[in-house]
Amino acid sequence: MRQIWISKTGGPEMLELREAPDPAPGPGEVRIRVERAGVNFADIMARQGLYPDAPRLPAVVGYEVAGNIDAIGAGVREFKAGDPVLAITRFGGYSDTVCVPEAQAFWRPAGMSADQGAAFPVVYLTAYQMLVAMGRVGPGQRVLIHQAAGGVGLAALDICQVLLATTFGTASASKHEFLLERGLDFAIDYHARDFVAEVHRLTDGKGVHAALDPVGGESWRRSYETLAPTGRLVIFGFSSLVHGGERSLRRLIERVIRTPWIKFNPLTLMNENKGILGANLGHMWDQVPTMRAWMKELLDWYLEGKLHPHVDRVFPLDQAGDAHRYVEERRNIGKVLLAP
User: Fold this and answer.
1) Contact assessment for residue 122 and residue 49, using Cβ atoms and an 8 Å cutoff
2) Taking 70 as the threshold, does the pLDDT of residue 256 lie above it?
């Protein structure tokens, strides 16, 4: 099989194509011939040495794939060879062949392409966790989505429309037309305008009921300021640590210093009737039944035509470095994939 390895921390050039023997599925596992693998921001942070959950380098990362099962291990009952699936992988996804526990694989619905399948698991499960399972967003509520044109952002926008929520999204002005066509209610150019002031202007000072923030640092404090009473800030990343191809210790220290640790103390939250929630799908591996229940509802919504995974670009597997660079430069709208 062919795989992309992170040889050591550094820029995109640290991604290397290597070959290895095909893995054999163990008991309860299925082997997938991968057609597409998803690229996520966590992969980039792992390459830069900024993702604490990543395996020790050198390693193969990747959280999601789509393809066809070509072998099954002892005890597998739901699948057989030839079945089209999408799957979540606890790393190892940057490969043309991968083995996963049966419970981490899902039937790929008729009509769902491999592109859509690989663009689906991580972003939609993350958005569902934040908006439905934890955020409890309901009809008529207002939601601020940061990085609205990214993979999670577009998934959150889809789900907010299912939930009948009003959406406010931050993105570069060049992405606004696309977002508005996708159903975003209010687009905010965070380069040109203060997003806190814009949210309060657009809501007549009422604020939002939920704010989804993957940026980190100072952005968490400012997102908190957009909340209405009973509002929830959901933090699910620290993308502001990544700037340029390699890790910057100075930038890391600056962002940590700007994190509003004091602002988020229990007494403040109690007195202001607001909440802080954290979401990390990568720490849900011991909650597979929960994630399968979430995925069932998400796939039902997909079959009903309510969810629309959007793929921006597909890079050949041996151009994984270019794919990382493309995402780091915030050029993508939706998902970026690798094609083994």
Assistant:
1) no
2) no
CA angle 322, 325, 329 (to 5 degrees): 145
pLDDT digits (tens, 9 = 90+) for 63-115: 999 999 999 999 999 999 999 999 999 999 999 999 999 999 999 999 999 99
User: Alpha-carbon distance 181 to 202, whole Å?
Assistant: 19
Residues 84, 113 contacting (CB under 8 angstroms): no
- What's the 3-state SS for the chain? CEEEEECCCCCHHHEEEEECCCCCCCCCEEEEEEEEEEECHHHHHHHCCCCCCCCCCCECCCCEEEEEEEEECCCCCCCCCCCEEEEECCCCCCECEEEEEHHHEEECCCCCCHHHHHCCHHHHHHHHHHHHHHCCCCCCCEEEECCCCEHHHHHHHHHHHHCCCEEEEECCHHHHHHHHHCCCCEEECCCCCCHHHHHHHHCCCCCEEEEEECCCCHHHHHHHCCEEEEEEEEECCCHHHCCCCCCCHHHHHHHHHCCCCCCCCHHHHHHHCCEEEECCHHHCHHHHHHHHHHHHHHHHHHHCCCCCCCEEEEEEHHHHHHHHHHHHCCCCCEEEEEEC
Burial 118-153 (b: 16+ CB within 10 A, else e): bbbbbbbbbbbbbbbebbebeeebbbbbbbbbbbbb
For residue 247, what pLDDT is reported? 57
CA distance 138 to 126: 17
Residue range 171-195: average pLDDT?
A: 97
Global pTM value: 0.94
Distance, in Å, from the CA atom of 142 to the CA atom of 168, rounded to the nearest integer, reads 8
Name, in order, each residue with C-beta under 8 angstroms of 208's C-beta and a sequence gap of 6 or more: 141, 142, 143, 144, 168, 199, 226, 227, 228, 231
Structure tokens at 59: 């390693």
